[in-house]
Amino acid sequence: MLHRAADWFPQGERVVDGLFRYTYPRLREQVLRCAALYHQLGVRKGDRVALMTVGSVQHVVALFGAIELGAIPAALHVRESVGTLSGVLEQLSPRVLVYDGAFAGVADELRQRKRLVTGFVRIVSPHTPPEQLTAGSDPVLPRDLEGYRLDFEPMEIHEHDTAIIALSSGTTGLPKGVMHSNRTLMEGARGGSYLWRMMPSDAMCNMMSTAFIGWYNVTLPVINAGAKVVFMPHWDAQGFLQAVQDERCTHAFLAPTMWRMLLRHGLEGYDLSLITSAGFAGEPMDTATLREIKARISPNIFNIYGSTESGSCSAGTVMFPHDLEDESRIDSVGRPMLNGDIRIIKPGGSADDVLPPGEEGEVLIRGPSVAVGFWYRPELARKVFEGPWWHSGDMGMIDADRYLYLRGRIDDMIISGGINILPSVVEDAVMRHPAVSEAAVIGVPDARWGQRVVACVVRRGAVTEQDLDAFVHETDLASYARPREYRFMDELPKGNTGKVSRKGLRALLAGD
User: Fold this and answer.
1) d(CA 57, CA 19)
2) 245: which of 41, 217, 356, 443 is 20 to 30 A away, CA to CA?
3) Looking at residues 152-163, what average pLDDT do you find?
4) Do 406 and 395 form a contact (C-beta atoms < 8 A)?
């Protein structure tokens, strides 16, 4: 894919950030030099290369430099503790650790802990502090690449070879290492190009964390089409708007929380007229924000549901713009992606235990971009990969029109008095109150009922526990599912992906 982009779309700066602007031929040249550097550091086909980097041009060089050799890159969650990063490296056992100069201190700590990592490479990005641009004795990208040349043909790469290890968000214990092959990545790139109707004249800004599958779902379809991808090291509403204007971006893809922040920041003074489509994923969208995006950004809006395991762009589901014209379907995540499929099964059952439309159960996904397994965790892979189907752990329901609606995680199910209660149903009732900004519902231990329902609420206006209890009492929520307690918070704890962490909530309440 990268070599094809360099061969057929050589004109113009197509891979850019705040410091570097590469054409595809220049990117390929740097990738080959990086591969030669890795080879000198002992990297061979199948070896892992860990990347502690933010979104940038040099991250792309480091990533594809590993793939060029048939090595397996794994981008780390840069906000994790040193202890967690050390545990991840223990599982990955990488030959080389590539780190942004911004994380030089963490890299030094890991250098002392992990003797299996024998090579260290530093990269420069817009996130790198000035004092860290050239410090230290490790090779620096791109400064030192001119001294390397790939003067041999790497070992042959096959479509079934593991291409990357993408780390899950790590809500429980160490994050899982989700293995994607060259084939699943290419299918995701094709599916993404189809979804965005990507052409060589298009441009897209990618501010996703490099460890998330969303980074690949933006980057690979753009490179596959020979278009332009613009990298930001972290989320910044003003910086995003400026980049969209200056780089003449035609597509915008953000989480709903980011869209709300963008709209609150204000769009005045920015030329966003070239945007032809907008997308969101990762959490529910509210009607007011959806309407504002349609009116001020683009009427063509997509909602994507997928995961690290599904690869998302050729498995999972999508709401196309015409689907979202009916606002009553705003809570749906749509129908299967191109060449993908989904089904709802009885929780705890097999892929053959299919439930009819209207009944709630576990969401199963299959498609050409679904991952091939878990690194270091074959026993877990056997539990969630059943033939071509992946058990998502999400609860959902398919309605009569064949639209999928999510109902939370199976692990989040509350069992009170022997009755199963889905948190999402309770949250929907609480969120209807106009003074509630956010709500998350969990089960806490109860001597009589096993668990009792507790609602954790962020207020946007004045409201008391008694007010909410009376309000929910008037909804159609079953009496056994109503919260028995309300906890008001300034904010709800979030995980790496920005989603509410129920584990964090349970820990907070346990500490009270």
Assistant:
1) 8
2) 217
3) 96
4) yes
Mark 492-509 as b/e (b = at least 16 C-beta within 10 Å).
Answer: bbeebbbbbbbebbbebe
My answer on whether omega of the bond before 142 falls inside 30° of 0, hence cis, is yes
| Nearest-angstrom CA–CA distance, 37 and 145 | 7
- Structural contact between residues 63 and 55, judged by C-beta atoms closer than 8 angstroms: no
Q: How far apart are CA 440 and CA 435, in angstroms?
A: 15
Residues with Cβ < 8 Å from 136, sequence gap 6 or more? 104, 122
Collapse the DSSP code of 209 into the 3-class scheme (helix H, G, I; strand E, B; otherwise coil) and give the result: coil
The predicted-structure confidence for 389-418, as pLDDT tens digits, reads as follows 999 999 999 999 999 999 878 888 888 887
Residue 496 pLDDT class (50, 70, 90 cuts): low
In Å, what is the CA distance from 65 to each residue of 62, 68, 169, 318, 502?
Answer: 5, 5, 25, 32, 38
Residue 277: other Cβ atoms inside 10 A: 20
Domains belonging to the chain, first-starting first, are 1-157 (3.40.50.980), 413-511 (3.30.300.30)
SS3 of residue 30 by DSSP? helix
Which candidate, 316, 315, 395, 388, places its Cα nearest to that of 348? 395
pLDDT digits 0-9 by tens, 60-96: 999 999 999 999 999 999 988 899 999 999 999 999 9
Can you give the three-state secondary structure of 459-496, one letter per residue? Answer: ECCCCCHHHHHHHHHCCCCCHHHCCCEEEECCCCCECC
Tokens 């090579």 belong to: 119
Give me 111's structure tokens: 């250098």
Nearest CA-CA partner of 27 in 39, 41, 40, 13: 13
* Confidence band for 171, pLDDT divided at 50, 70 and 90: very low
What pLDDT sits at residue 497? Answer: 60
Average pLDDT over residues 460-489: 93
Parallel, antiparallel, or unpaired: how do β-strands 21-22 and 277-281 relate?
unpaired
pLDDT in tens, 94-137: 999 999 999 999 999 999 987 889 999 999 999 999 998 888 89
Which alpha helices (H) appear in 56-197, and where do they start and end?
57-69, 82-92, 104-113, 182-196
Q: What are phi and psi of 234, to 5 degrees?
A: -160, 170
For 389, phi then psi, to 5°, come to -95, 140
pTM for this prediction: 0.86
Is 56 in a helix, a strand, or coil?
coil
The Cα diameter of the chain in Å comes to 74
In one letter, which amino acid is 80? E
Distances (CA, A) of 129 to 85, 125, 140, 226: 22, 9, 14, 31
